[in-house]
């Protein structure tokens, strides 16, 4: 029996679940899990359905589903689970290390095709794990030239997503447009309260009691794209700057890997500037 994931988003109306399940049953597909959500404010319907069965004609199934759904419906049929990714880095290793170790032991849910860095710092570590590392220097280049070089590398591979694992360069609107909905970023949740350099030192000096991290899709608005997942940790007066940084890195790793797992399992819908996440 083959596994099939069906993703549907469409305007809401009465009878959608009945129509969808009837079509799947007619194609001899057995539903083993189904999650749905209605955004009442926008009158939108979302569902993720895990099925088993022998799918002989995916296009015919998609066509039949669309016939039984409202206009403007989107249907995505997914049979290949393992995604292909490229990882962009600067100097910090903690998020990259988590990704590459899980990739090494085939527990990432995706395959890392390459790592691209604007410093050489992480080359040795990356190549020791058998992953190609590409260095693209940003110095004395305008953003367009730098990004063109990065895109030339990415386009050598079949890539489903770009993961910014503490990549400390602001991407242009043109670059983001080329990979719309496919770029995932991780940052500390101090933004916008603590922007700029040394956010953990700023947080320490302010005496914060909670630190956190946010994983989100990248859009034209800096650090304001649809949020995938967030977590926080409590801190207190015993935390110095070093302890704050250490705690921050741990939660960044946790949040990024959780977000990637959700995305690689096709559990995330984007709706405007929000996400629907079926855990």
Automatic annotation (TrEMBL):
Chain coiled-coil ranges: none
Class of enzymatic activity (EC top level): hydrolase
Catalytic reaction(s) noted: (6R)-10-formyltetrahydrofolate + H2O = (6S)-5,6,7,8-tetrahydrofolate + formate + H(+)
Gene3D superfamilies: 3.30.70.260, Formyl transferase, N-terminal domain (3.40.50.170)
Keywords, in A-Z order: Hydrolase, One-carbon metabolism, Purine biosynthesis
Catalytic residues in the record: 223
Molecular functions per Gene Ontology: formyltetrahydrofolate deformylase activity
Metal-binding as UniProt keyword: no
Domain ACT residue range list: 5-80
Metabolic or biological pathway: Purine metabolism; IMP biosynthesis via de novo pathway; formate from 10-formyl-5,6,7,8-tetrahydrofolate: step 1/1
Domain of life, source organism: Bacteria
EC number: 3.5.1.10
InterPro entries, per the entry: ACT-like_dom_sf, ACT_dom, Formyl_transf_N, Formyl_transf_N_sf, PurU, PurU_ACT
Keyword Ligase: no
Pfam families: ACT, Formyl_trans_N
GO biological-process terms attached to the record: 'de novo' IMP biosynthetic process; one-carbon metabolic process
Role according to the record: Catalyzes the hydrolysis of 10-formyltetrahydrofolate (formyl-FH4) to formate and tetrahydrofolate (FH4).
Family, similarity comment: Belongs to the PurU family.
The protein, known as: Formyltetrahydrofolate deformylase
Species per Swiss-Prot/TrEMBL record: Pedobacter kyonggii
Gene: purU
